[in-house]
Amino acid sequence: MRSFIVICGICCWGIAMISSCGTAVTGETNATALVQPDSVSYINIDTTLIPNGPFGESVKYGRELMLHTARYIGPDGSAGKFLGNKMNCTNCHQDAGTKAFSFNLMSSHDNYPQYRAREGKVLTLAERVNNCVMRPHNGKPLPLDSKEMVAFLSYFKWISTFVPKDKPFKGAKNLHLTFPDIAANPENGQALYQTNCARCHGPNGEGQWNADKSTYVYPPLWGNAAYQPGSSMHRVIKQAEWLKNNMPYDKVTPGKPFLSDKEAMDIAAFVNNDKIHSRPNPKNFDYPHIAEKAIDYDHGPFADTFSMAQHKFGPYQPIIDYWKAKGLKPVY
Ligand code: HEC
Ligand code: HEC
């Protein structure tokens, strides 16, 4: 009944609201009806619609945690010391997980529990949140019943009510790449990095602190304060897809990339080149079933005979073709 009241409380789009409130009496939150019929391209959320009351308070705290993660649960966090670094969720899931093509989290509440190849089992959304707490943030998991975890989940549930349930919306997934025939080139990436990225992220990828060093104005890209190698951001394809839409920060708008696909891949190869850049040590590398391993995950063993270097830097098309020929589904 609580969710019924909340959903009706946040929607103010007229007729659709009345019908959805009618159907929700069964206790189901039929959010499909809450979405404006013509709003399926880019989706904007309106935080003034967060409801009052205990659920709304939890949603607001969840959003606050997305934006100022380090302040609350960082190494000096006021609500507990969970993260191993002072990055914030929104550094990667921009606009608190609502920006198009930026590892958008607006469908996450609908998509879990979900089978995860990485762990070889079905995870809840709370467990998935903890994966990001442990990998990119190099931390220890939040208790599943903590106020902070409940707030993250409340926020994800609330942003999910803006999403159409029957068709995909623009920016739900990151932009895709056309793979070049040759491997990504970290040396070329280094030159591109110095031209396009170093002015904010620093010549040594160290980022730039804010005034009281509680977090970053520009987050670090490598070193012990950055994401660890077990993070998806450490995969060249994953990072390049994200860079294409989101960096350089001041030169892109959603759907209007600045970097070419090849440039994004070369830069991602440089940033993620472990031979020259240190990172925190991962606790484990997961993927109990190797035939489910993402093709750009650089830690063996592999379900094919391609080298570790080719898995990391490409060229990827031969790996994809090989997997398809074997009847396997290449993940990337
Ligand atoms: C360094 C970048 C980075 C940071 C910081 C980060 N994440 Fe993630 N997160 C990712 C990537 C990459 C994925 C995988 C996305 C994909 O595969 O499409 C992901 C996936 C997720 C997912 C699963 C989304 C889905 O629908 O499957 C959730 C939930 C999530 N992150 C929450 C968080 C939270 C909460 C925080 C802060 C505590 C956080 N992330 C911090 C990079 C990051
Ligand atoms: C004008 C400053 C600026 C430039 C130039 C810039 N970035 Fe960023 N970058 C940011 C900011 C700000 C964030 C955090 C975004 C947020 O919190 O909303 C960020 C976040 C990131 C992240 C995710 C968080 C992390 O630290 O892992 C990566 C990766 C990244 N940038 C890579 C790059 C690369 C590669 C380039 C060059 C192609 C680049 N950036 C250019 C400002 C910049």
From TrEMBL:
GO terms for molecular function: electron transfer activity; heme binding; metal ion binding. Keywords: Heme, Iron, Metal-binding, Signal. Gene3D superfamilies: Cytochrome c-like domain. Residues 184-275 form the Cytochrome c domain. InterPro entries: Cyt_c-like_dom, Cyt_c-like_dom_sf, Cytochrome_c-type_DH. It comes from the Bacteria. Residues 1-24 form the signal peptide. PANTHER family: BLL4482 PROTEIN-RELATED, CYTOCHROME C DOMAIN-CONTAINING PROTEIN. This is Cytochrome c. It comes from Chitinophaga eiseniae.
